[in-house]
């Protein structure tokens, strides 16, 4: 019989604990319960030793010993594990590549006057166009935007050369390694198709070659997904600047019509924010005081970064937003959407609205999104929510009290705007000086998910606090950013967590940003915005004329759940940045694969560390993980001679 965890065991967040208790008292099942019911995981799958690639199987190899040592086709444990990892990478890269392509199509339609968006950041448009070597002289804004969009779409079509976004954004010293290994992507769809092909029965059986295929997926993810999406979204919706928002389940408002926007692509949700403002008066006619948009997961991050929209929940507690009984609609686009939200919604008046033709949920309403008709879809969704308000049962409403104020919006541009007040000619110099003299011991990107199997927020917050007290500057994205916001690491109170030199620097920089201090954790955005930490590191590496791999910089994803997080981690490692994951990445069935990733083979030159300068660190204890990350930071400082 599986042990069902008490609410205080599943989350550090007392509001989540409260709402989980409410859900259970009403017989409503959530992901936390289902994670417990799942109990012990399949030992074959957990080790990456189950193969379902063809109908000779499923084949499985018993971890560490007895039973068959090869599948029916002759694949051994190393091949099975490497293929299983590549499958995960394909999923991650595909998700982000599709995100990038959708945004590129929206930019194209906007430039052609076919979609109702405006280009909010013309400066960024011109910078991106120049970076792509496009002609801008004498061209109109829409002509330049069209050229940028078509150049982006080429990254899903071209059959020779290198992806345009790698030519534009890829760090030259990393490029040399990728080119030498022959792993630099040509176009995202081509590479994904090749990866699927090599992973099929009878395809690639060489575990090390398969691992290089995983690195290619990391690069596809990074450049056709992350960089391309961040750049084009900044062009369309504005490059983030410092902005205040509130975080917690308490951002739902009993007196207002509440709409949660959930998923990843902000194309529709930006319009929903617009239409909520336009239809505000209509809300009054049904007895509500207004329309309150709240964010979930990375669509939430996108909106808070640019619009200061309040954030309600990260991934693992998404169903509990509905359990408040005060949610009129949850609108979802793509990725990280639990189908379980529909079962929970059926216990309330909440309408789940899917919006993408390839992401539907049985029982949910579907309002189709196409960029051309974005206004129609957004208007219909807001009007549905207004109508649903009358169906709300006040007896079922439970909204926890107390939310946390936080500051976000720290794009590279925003950080440089602040540091330029100290050194206008060389905005990065104040950061470089601080790294060199040890004021900043290192930089850590605390990123990624929350996972219903793991106690929510504990890993993310503990790793961040351990690093902050050792003067490591934290940048953050994704659901990890939600965790850090909740515990005050995005406001002035969080300075208490910092070591003295970091604290003093954040106070000094804050004054240049019109704040009393910069927050200890700089929120850089959604998961596609993991482009931003790499852009920052690449710019610092250029100034120092060293590879990114030489910098005292690390990544940590303490509460990993998604394949996307593993692919992002691989993209970081491909640049030579060590990456910690706190959840087993399911590669233990092959010593060869595990040791190649973690750099613990004797022939070091063919490990991730040896090839790229960054390795995988698997550690479930966040305190130990932070200690390992500090060791690696110090090792890189020493090698740099600082
Ligand atoms: O892309 S952090 S749980 S919501 S996968 Fe998903 Fe993980 Fe959250 Fe954003 Ni990223």
CATH architecture of the largest domain: 3-Layer(aba) Sandwich
Low-confidence stretches: none
Question: Which structural class fits the helix and strand makeup?
Answer: alpha/beta
Class of the largest domain in CATH?
Answer: Alpha Beta
The number of domains is 4
**What value does the Rg take, in angstroms?**
24 Å
Total helix count? 27
Shape: globular
Mean pLDDT: 96
Bound heterogens, unique: FE(4)-NI(1)-S(5) CLUSTER with Oxygen
Share of β-strand residues: 5-15%
First CA to last CA: what distance? 55 Å
Q: Which sheet architecture does the biggest sheet show?
A: 6 strands, parallel
Taking strands numbered 1, 2, ... along the chain, how are they ordered across the largest sheet? 6-5-4-7-8-9
CATH domain topology of the largest domain: Rossmann fold
| Helical amount | 40-55%
DSSP, total strands: 16
The quaternary state of the protein chains shown equals: single chain
Give a verbal description of the structure.
With about 650 residues, the chain is an alpha/beta fold. The chain folds into four domains: about 5-60, no CATH class; about 75-235, Substrate Binding Domain Of Dnak, Chain:A, Domain 2 (Up-down Bundle); about 250-395, Rossmann fold; about 405-640, Rossmann fold (3-Layer(aba) Sandwich), CATH 3.40.50.2030. Helix content is about 50%, strand content about 10%. It has a six-stranded parallel beta sheet with strand order 6-5-4-7-8-9. A six-stranded parallel beta sheet has the order 13-12-11-14-15-16, with helices on both faces. A two-stranded antiparallel sheet has the order 1-2. Strand 5, helix 14 and strand 6 (about 310-315) form a beta-alpha-beta unit. Helix 6 runs antiparallel to helix 11, helix 10 (about 190-200) runs antiparallel to helix 11 (about 205-235) and helix 12 crosses helix 17 (about 375-390). The chain is globular, with a radius of gyration of 24 Å. FE(4)-NI(1)-S(5) CLUSTER with Oxygen binds near residues 297, 336, 479, 562 and 564. InterPro entries: CO_DH_a-bundle, CODH, HCP/CODH, Prismane-like_a/b-sand, Prismane-like_sf.
């Amino acid at each position: 019989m599986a042990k069902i965890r008490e609410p205080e065991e599943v989350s550090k967040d007392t509001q989540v604990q409260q709402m989980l208790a409410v859900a259970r008292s009403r017989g409503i099942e959530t992901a936390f319960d289902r994670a417990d019911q799942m109990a012990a995981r399949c030992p074959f799958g957990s080790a990456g030793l189950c193969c379902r690639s063809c109908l000779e199987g499923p084949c499985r190899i018993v971890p560490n010993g007895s039973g068959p040592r090869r599948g029916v086709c002759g694949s051994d444990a190393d091949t099975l594990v490497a293929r299983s990892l590549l499958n995960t990478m394909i999923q991650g890269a595909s998700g982000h590549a599709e995100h990038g392509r959708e945004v590129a199509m929206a930019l194209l339609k906007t430039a052609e006057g076919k979609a109702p968006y405006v280009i909010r950041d013309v400066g960024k448009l011109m910078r991106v166009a120049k970076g792509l070597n496009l002609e801008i002289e004498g061209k109109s804004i829409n002509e330049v935007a069209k050229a940028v969009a078509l150049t982006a779409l080429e990254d899903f079509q071209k059959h020779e050369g290198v992806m345009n976004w790698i030519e534009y954004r890829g760090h030259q010293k990393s490029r040399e390694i990728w080119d030498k290994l022959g792993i630099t992507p040509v176009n995202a769809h081509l590479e994904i198709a090749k990866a699927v092909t090599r992973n099929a029965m009878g395809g690639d059986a060489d575990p090390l070659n398969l691992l290089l295929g995983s690195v290619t997926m990391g690069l596809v993810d990074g450049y056709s997904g992350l960089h391309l999406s961040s750049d084009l979204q900044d062009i369309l919706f504005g490059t983030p600047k410092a902005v205040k928002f509130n975080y917690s389940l308490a951002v739902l408002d009993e007196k207002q019509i509440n709409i949660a926007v959930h998923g990843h692509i902000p194309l529709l949700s930006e319009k929903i924010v617009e239409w909520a403002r336009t239809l505000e008066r209509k809300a009054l006619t049904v007895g509500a005081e207004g329309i309150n948009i709240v964010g979930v997961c990375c669509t939430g991050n996108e909106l808070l970064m640019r619009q200061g929209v309040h954030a309600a929940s990260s991934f693992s507690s998404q169903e509990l937003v509905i359990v408040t009984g005060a949610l009129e609609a949850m609108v979802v686009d793509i990725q990280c959407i639990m189908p379980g939200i529909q079962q929970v919604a059926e216990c309330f008046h909440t309408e789940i609205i899917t919006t993408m033709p390839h992401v539907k949920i049985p029982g949910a309403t579907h309002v189709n999104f196409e960029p051309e008709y974005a206004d129609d879809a957004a208007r219909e969704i807001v009007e549905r929510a207004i109508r649903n308000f009358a169906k709300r049962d006040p007896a079922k409403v439970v909204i926890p009290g107390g939310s946390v104020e936080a500051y976000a919006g720290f794009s590279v541009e925003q950080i440089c705007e602040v540091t330029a007040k100290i050194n206008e000619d060389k905005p990065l110099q104040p950061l470089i000086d601080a790294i060199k003299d040890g004021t900043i011991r290192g930089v850590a990107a605390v990123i990624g998910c929350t996972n219903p199997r793991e106690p929510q927020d504990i890993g993310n917050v503990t790793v961040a606090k351990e690093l902050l007290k050792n003067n490591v500057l934290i940048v953050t994205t994704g659901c990890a950013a939600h965790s850090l916001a909740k515990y005050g690491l995005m406001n002035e109170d969080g300075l208490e967590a910092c070591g003295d030199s970091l604290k003093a620097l954040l106070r000094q920089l804050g004054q240049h940003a019109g704040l009393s201090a910069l927050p200890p954790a700089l929120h850089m955005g959604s998961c596609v915005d993991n482009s931003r930490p790499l852009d920052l590191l690449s710019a610092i590496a250029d100034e120092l004329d060293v590879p990114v791999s030489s910098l005292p910089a690390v990544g940590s994803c303490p509460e990993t759940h998604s394949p996307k997080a593993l692919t992002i981690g691989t993209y970081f490692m491909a640049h030579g940045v060590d990456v910690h994951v706190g959840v087993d990445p399911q590669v233990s069935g092959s010593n060869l694969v595990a040791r190649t990733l973690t750099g613990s083979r004797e022939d070091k030159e063919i490990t991730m560390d040896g090839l790229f300068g960054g390795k995988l660190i698997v550690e479930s204890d966040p305190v130990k993980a932070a200690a390992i990350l500090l060791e690696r930071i110090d090792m890189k400082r020493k090698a740099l001679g600082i």
